[in-house]
Known about the structure:
The chain is mostly beta strands. The chain contains 3 helices and 15 strands.
Amino acid sequence: MGFNFRSLPVRMRKLGLSFFIIVFLCAFTGDYKEAYPPMKNESFSRGEVLHYKMIYGFFTIGKGVATVYPQYYKMNNRDCFKVEIIGKTVGVVDWIADIDDQWGAYVDTAALIPHQFFRRIREGRYKKDEWTNFDQVNNRIEVKTLDKKTGKLKEPKYYDAPAQVRDMISGYLLLRNIDFNKIKPKDTISVPGFFEDAFYNMKIIYKGKEVIKTKVGKVRTIVLVPVMPKNKIFDGENSVSAWFSDDKNRIPIKISAELFIGSASVELIDYTGLRSRLNIVTDK
């Protein structure tokens, strides 16, 4: 004689249904939780704004601002930071080069991985509008670009992705949350990510600590050197150096680059909304 579910009391039937519903949902939420593993963030919070100047040789050629928006945003039904970096040329250079670029991302507040990365590039006659959507649950990436002739979106491109893959901005936020007190000078850090149509594994060498003089004061910093791939812009694999504040903020204080046609740098000139006090050396 077979088992008759209807023969059970109503209360037991409801409990049985509830049990099966919970088990059914857990089969999906298990993967969901694995897609967004929590990551501790002590370096930044909403409302942080960093202002920079861009120097080529001895001349200031541009300005930039990195902003963590003061409100949360929803993407894929999860809370996100909206982080945006804007850079544009100024003065005489603006007449010649006319660069006005905007880079941004919606980054999961709990896992610090991206839901969307976007670019709005305006460099002379060259223009590009691009959105990269990260499906962290199904490990898939969708890239959409705007057709500048028609003003409509082109057919999207799809890529299979490894778990917790990052874009450039969430990779930068990851770097800010690494505990460099547990890393020795000359050690290498790897930050995997995706950009435009390719996966990469950026290797960064930790060089140690240094005090540098800036417009905001003498700042204690950690020194990082990304290993640059062969290209037509940077002069060698160790041509870029970056100084991040040696405190919980880990904000970029200065970035310098040796190019085939000279040297360039980006330097912090002002800041607001830091989560912790900046590690400035006070002269006695």
